[in-house]
Amino acid sequence: MSAFLFVVPPLTGHVNPAVGVAARLAAHGHRVAWVCADPALVRRLAGPDAEAFGCAGPVPGAEGAVRPPDLRGAEALKFLWERYLLPLADAMAPGVSAAVEAFRPDVVVADQQAFAGALVAERLGLPWATSATTSAEFTGAYDGLPKVVAWLRHRLSELRARVGDPSGTADPRFSPHLLMIFSTPELVGPLAPLAPHVHYVGPSLAHRPAGPGFPWERLAQPRAKVLVTLGTANADTGGRFLAECLTALRERADRVQAVIADPGGTLAVPPGDKDVLVLPSVPQLALLERMDAVVCHAGHNTVCEALWHGVPLVVAPIRDDQPVVAGQVVDAGAGVRVRFGRVRADRLGAALDTVLTDPAHRTAAARIRTAFRAAGGARAAAAHLEQLAAESR
């Protein structure tokens, strides 16, 4: 049996896809451990018995890592790298090294944004795999932007000199040993890279308890069901957008019933409302089995979870990889894009009407669902990792 060390940032959307893979490996008798700046998050998502090594590093909401909500484009990318990803890698590196020393893994599985995992593994001569929890880096997002590409390479070179092997050459975002992408070319599009070490495994969806208290009985009405969610990291920016959604949904209450995730508590809706159900958190995977459409921020996990269930989308990207993922959804025909910062209820409502009534969007979503389910998910990812471990002995 082999030992696998998962190195992840303290972000739910990056830990969740790895949870199912780790569970598969453990079920096959392998040793599994984690490194994260928030080990409690790992244990909450992977189970209380998960072996999780702590390390330093900023967590979401930490001082200096809170991005101004109106930051967009190149400035948002620069902020993400300079104020979060690079400091996270510098801070994590000693803890990753200590975890490798204590756990003795055969393979390091590094999230694509946990650069320290890749660089420490390279420095110590360990094989490492990339866990690509977003496909945005594989669609030519920086084509035509040579200055951005050069800047990113320079910053990664500086980081390697500090925490890795200065003579190393591999980009820590893309393992030359094994690159696992939790999507498929049917969504990524024609620019999806192909190589023997690149594997599209589709979404890795581990079972998540629905939790107590969700009023499932209120979803029994014979109307189309719509989920509205902006993910776990956008509570500070979503108030206006959620209010416009609420107005659009109210106008369609005769034929649409909505569930809105409102972690910031920005919407005032009576608890017994039969048209719109507003909660601070929702059991998303369980809900998607009953939804007819999803309105979201184009976060990679939410998009892939919706399409896993064949549910078309209205996407309103905010920042980071979300505009790229939104473009993938539209290009694949599985949804409609609106502008997060400017859209009003009438435009939102029209987009929602389109994905609910135009069969082309549901057909495209069903095509991606078929591809996702054929890709193998956690089972396929675990098999590729086992093969890498075997080849490295």
Please explain how this structure is put together:
The protein is of the alpha/beta class and 393 residues long. The chain has 2 domains: 3-202 and 376-392, 3-Layer(aba) Sandwich (Rossmann fold); 216-373, Glycogen Phosphorylase B (Rossmann fold, 3-Layer(aba) Sandwich). The protein has helices at 12-27, 39-46, 73-103, 115-124, 146-163, 185-188, 239-250, 284-288, 300-308, 322-331, 345-357, 359-375, 377-392, and strands at residues 3-7, 31-36, 52-54, 107-111, 128-132, 178-181, 198-200, 224-229, 256-261, 276-279, 293-296, 313-315, 335-337. The strands form 2 sheets. The chain has a 7-stranded parallel beta sheet with strand order 3-2-1-4-5-6-7, sandwiched between helices. Strands 10-9-8-11-12-13 form a 6-stranded parallel beta sheet, sandwiched between helices. The protein is globular. The protein starts with a strand and ends with a helix.
